[in-house]
Amino acid sequence: DYYQQYFESAYKLAALLDLPQSSIVVPNTPLAKGKSWRLPLDETIKQALNLREEIMVYLAEADADIWNARAAMREYLPEFSFQGFAYGYYEWDGSTKSSSSGVEPYQSTYKNGAWGLGVTWNIFDFGVYAAESQSYEASAKQKKFQADSERLKVKKQIRVAYATYEAAKDLVYLSEESVLAAEAYLASTKARYRVGLDNMVAITQAMQSLGTAIKSKSNALVKYNLSVAKLYRYSALWPPNILPFNSVYDSAKDLKPTSN
């Protein structure tokens, strides 16, 4: 059953990578305990609420709806304008105008000014823009509610993953101790068998116990590593010493599937 699951997973991974049908993908390094999670629970939740893309999308859409509502309302409300201008003209000639007292300079001044208050209001739109504004406002409220709902979902995901991580740490420790105990028991059983104090059935049972302990350790390591991976995913933090997504994608494009 274990080997069947192992090969099914290997073939499934090859299919996901779009490799030829006869290919399988197996790890080239043994299963090991990954790095521990470095943030406490409260800080992990804080990071998730600030970085999760689902929350940011809803908030961005809500902001866009608010601006659209304001724009629609501006189309409906009256617009007031104030305008004014001034115009002046001055002319002087010191030698062309005469009078009874002699030659006098000629001087002319002209001034003109105006101001006005304007009102523009599309009162015959039958409330279309006002209704459009209310529609955008309702949509913005809905997006904010969705963002709040997503926050609750993120908090739950983080708490569950963090609890799983804490339990997995203890489980890994206990499974390692179980493997050591099973190895010691098998060694002592073999020693007793060599001096005639035990039979082959006891050795077989000891080997089965060791296999069960090793399988439990493997499951514990997988559970531990998956819980850490979920914490990175749910908190939207990028793991250290891991290439950025763009670099991984560019490298994957150059891969050429091969089969043995």
How would you portray this structure in words?
The protein has 260 residues and is α+β, with helices and mostly antiparallel strands. The chain is 62% helix and 15% strand. It has a two-stranded antiparallel ribbon. A hairpin with a 2-residue loop joins strand 1 (79-99) and strand 2 (102-120). Helix 2 (41-51) packs across helix 4. The model is unreliable at 95-99 (pLDDT under 50).
Write the layout of secondary structure elements.
Blueprint: H1 2-16, H2 41-51, H3 53-76, E1 79-99, E2 102-120, H4 128-194, H5 200-235, H6 245-253
Antiparallel strand pairs: 1-2
Categorize the overall geometry: rod-shaped
Detail the poorly predicted runs. Answer: 95-99
The value of Rg in angstroms is: 40 Å
Provide the helix percentage.
55-70%
Number of helices: 6
The H/E string reads HHHEEHHH
Largest sheet: 2 strands, antiparallel
What is the mean predicted local confidence, pLDDT?
78
The helix-and-strand class reads: alpha+beta
Oligomer: single chain
Distance between the termini: 25 Å
Major sheet strand order: 1-2
Q: What's the total count of β strands?
A: 2
* Strand portion: 15-25%
